[in-house]
Amino acid sequence: EYILGIETSCDETAVAIVKGGTEIVSNVVASQIESHKRFGGVVPEIASRHHVEQITVVIEEALAKAEMTIAEMDAIAVTEGPGLVGALLVGVNAAKALAFAHQKPLIGVHHIAGHIYANRLVEEFEFPLLALVVSGGHTELIVMKEHGKFEIIGETRDDAAGEAYDKVARTLKLPYPGGPKIDELAHIGAQRIDFPRAWLEDSFDFSFSGLKSAVINTLHNASQKGIEYKHEDIAASFQASVVDVLVEKTYRAAIENNVKQVIVAGGVAANKGLRKAMETKFKEERMNVMFPPLSLCTDNAAMIASAGYIAYKQGHRSGWDLNANPGLDLEMYANRGK
Ligand code: ATP
Ligand code: MG
Ligand code: FE
After folding, report:
1. pTM (global) more than 0.95
2. What range(s) does the Gcp-like domain occupy (predicted)?
3. CA of 299 to the centre of ligand 2 (A)
4. Which residues pair with 143 in a beta bridge?
5. Is the CB of 266 under 6 A from ligand 1?
6. Which stretches within 118-230 are classed as H helix?
């Protein structure tokens, strides 16, 4: 079965065709990074306008690359939330128009379910499974006991990991998006500063706002005293603090929940320091940890088609009244009716 996936929740206009939930036939991503760069972040109105301009072209390109037609699709899957409402609406309306015109099932997909299912484009899931989701808006530990079911066992109490990266990057006056830049700098820098790690006792929750403030204060105090830290040393020290907490909590959660598989998902899963530290830790403990390839870590539509395939097989169908839901809750989504 072929699923056409559409993703427009933030600043990527993406369309993909996936066969059987696991095989990418085509995967097109039109990024708007260049347009948002001069504002230092995503501007919602600009994002919506770009999606409107791009969506038809990107749908046609995905079909052309697959050498397929809409008539050959078994269903149309689309991100219904969470995300920017004006951005989501463009994808949802395009999906509704396509599905209605061609009389295909319409499947609304949760964006984070999509990030998790990016991993199923690499390897089959084994349950129970633990997913560490680290993206621009989310930092969560999620246990899955079966396909399409998500139980959040820990989440950030303030900033998301990606958000912390982007904010620290802005403090260092690095161009948007800052995550990949900090990652690069961290590899040439040294861990000279001992930034705090928010363990929050035994909880599987996270907190990154204290770390972000510590970086800002350190830079501020240093400049007052006439000390200058190298940006790469700040980056290395910051990244060490983030990675330590992510690795340690994920490992503890994996043991406590007796999981068979550990996966990492979302934009920050592209982080080289995190990938390496996870692999080292889990190897020591003779456990496997899985990451999507870099291009499937950040927003794309193949992951939406993959999650959409499972929803399709489980009989979920969205109505013609499907709407963008900027605050869509993952557990509520998982427990929705058919
Ligand atoms: P969400 O998925 O929570 O709705 P989003 O879609 O904006 O948010 P993603 O596209 O999944 O987030 O990921 C983007 C985030 O990933 C940005 O914060 C970006 O800085 C971060 N990121 C990307 N690559 C790296 C990297 N190599 N190291 C650290 N962070 C990274
Ligand atoms: Mg993005
Ligand atoms: Fe995302």
Report:
1. yes
2. 23-305
3. 5
4. 130, 151
5. yes
6. 161-171, 178-188, 209-224
